[in-house]
Amino acid sequence: MAGIRDLARECGVSVATVSRALNGQPQVSVETRRQIQEAARRIGYRPSHSARALVRGRSDAVGLLWDSGYEASGRRHPFLMSVLVGVKRALGDLDRHLLLLNAADHNAEDNAFLNAALEHQLDGVILMGIDERRPAARALYDSGLPCVAFDLPITGRHTTYVTSDNAAGAVEAVHYLHRLGHRRAATITGPADSLPALQRLAGFQATVHALGMETRPEYVQTGDFFLGSGYAAGCRLAALTDRPTAVFVAGDEMAIGVMHAFADAGIDVPRDVSVIGFDDIEAASLVRPGLTTIAQDPIALGAAAVEALLALVDAESPADPDELAVQDARLPRTVPIRLVERGSCAPPRPAWEAAAREGGRRRSSPDIERLPG
Amino acid sequence: MAGIRDLARECGVSVATVSRALNGQPQVSVETRRQIQEAARRIGYRPSHSARALVRGRSDAVGLLWDSGYEASGRRHPFLMSVLVGVKRALGDLDRHLLLLNAADHNAEDNAFLNAALEHQLDGVILMGIDERRPAARALYDSGLPCVAFDLPITGRHTTYVTSDNAAGAVEAVHYLHRLGHRRAATITGPADSLPALQRLAGFQATVHALGMETRPEYVQTGDFFLGSGYAAGCRLAALTDRPTAVFVAGDEMAIGVMHAFADAGIDVPRDVSVIGFDDIEAASLVRPGLTTIAQDPIALGAAAVEALLALVDAESPADPDELAVQDARLPRTVPIRLVERGSCAPPRPAWEAAAREGGRRRSSPDIERLPG
DNA sequence: CGGCCAACCGGAAACGTTTCCGTAGGCGCT
DNA sequence: AGCGCCTACGGAAACGTTTCCGGTTGGCCG
What we know:
Mean pLDDT of chain A: 88
Low-confidence stretches of chain A: 360-373
Order of helices and strands of chain A: HHHHEHEHEHEEHEHEHEHEEHHEEH
Helix content of chain A: 40-55%
Distance between the termini of chain A: 65 Å
Structural class of chain A: alpha/beta
Oligomer: homodimer
Strand content of chain A: 5-15%
Number of strands of chain A: 12
Largest sheet of chain A: 6 strands, parallel
Shape of chain A: elongated
Largest interface: A-B, 52 and 52 residues
């Protein structure tokens, strides 16, 4: 393994010069630099990450904390993998790497995460799909180490979070429904301790109100983001005498559940009732009819997270903690969403046609006609 | 930041003793060890990973290489995330960490991966969802650094791969179909350069032959693991005069595609034809009817990968390269699969009923009756 | 011509570990 | 009593960088 000394000897210069040349520092002549780079390539020199990290006191790596047991706990992050891709790309552009902290799912000592982060001298940590109330997690973001989370409103000395624009997504969804002609829309929301669920519900209610659409207590049902709860809520909706003509569901998996419930009740989607989801999970494009949904942009989410994290570390890097910059970096990031139309929404049926509904019944997966603008 | 010297001073011993005590080496008295551990906790001592890695020459970390642009290239790894969980857990049990190498999707210099791996002194690298023909990947597993891949039959000096028991899965699938009473089964396979596709096809053909089931050229169709290709293949199958009564599809997404094709052709699944998939992706349990499929075990796959990787590094760790152990560690790992029954398979219809099929048509998602053992 | 500055470079001290080698004492054995 | 072995420990040399503090040129200005 060729070290910096070998390289220095090879070029007839000192190790200091080699270091400066390779790190792009200015006090080295262009000719010397060229020679050094040339020689480095020739002898296959590779700088030791450990040595560099040791002396500089940081590793240029960020940690990723995510808990594999999380999904079982009744919450979800439907596309962690894609978000991860976004994180990885953004980091790659900055020549940084990502260290997965094994959350030692069992037997996790309270300082497990923090210890790992400090031992590796991480620049900061990104948290996703984790129970933010775990002591081990708390210890981490109470430590002053920069942290950014997905969909988790964590607080700490150097901490912020990123999330999709859930409120905007909800208002776009009900505007869309309203444009289609719907006036009676229900929603299925998520657990009350889920930030996205709350924001989506708030957006829904505000817009329904602003548009003067009908509102009743039975029109908001609660689920847990999983299929079964969507099915159950769908059954409750189906049994209503004043059934809504559209339903905005806070998560795609639940939305698929309500579609099943409606199918089992003999209610055709989208002819009899429209359903619109949230997230755009893979299955949304696989089911029939295709699920119209508010799509999150996982790549952008990942990029926003690293941007937020870097802002956090930059803000505290100078010796004097720039209080203003810290405040600024602490602001949550919110990334835009996008409506993707598939087959699960349509204009409501005219009353006379709905009345005649109990006649013949056709195939439940009709090709849906293109919707007008 | 407390260093090992502070700890030594605190305890009135030398740094050498502290190091030995903390690393569990035997030549330190139990009393001294206890005191040192106590003091370490008290002053919050955390060993520097960089320093340790620097002097020991290795980092106790393994790299993970996966290419986010891969899916666009016509191949898939349907549950990378879950496999990742498996890898992470297995690693966590060994107090190792996982470093995600940013594959610098663009502008990737030919040695990008290898450089990153060497600079970080990784124990080895796990590859998944990557185009194994990329020069940058080749350089990696030609380098002698231990590598293990998923579903990629890569070869190199210290290299192996893990994969699900695709052949066994295929034979189980057709046995299952055969038990149900099917005698005319088709298959939809994947690209010819995909290892799992090849193995699944081979298992299918061998079993069909062994069981004396009908075989015709049109009964094997080729797809690319994506929905559209499954739909197309399903249409071709539906148009056959001697249509098969069951189809074994080499991937769940394609399987969903053929279900759509059949639905559009007025063919009911599972009444008119059974379809069985492979992989058990999330959507398999979300569609209707639920997709009966051969499930891979992603957690076990991940665990098998780290086990294989560690065998590889152990085999070459002694000064003398134990040629036998290396040979042994190079053997591919194969992890068992499991049949999961959902609603897409049923006994074939008796001929007389099939003949009368063109009569009334009912809802396409009937609740399926439980199958006899 | 002396002094000053900029540009370029070298020596050496860190950084925090692990490990090799050495040593002091205790103990059993002949 | 002398010898050697074993256990527990200390001293110090690595490991491969970065960076501080200089030092040596050569050119320019006064």
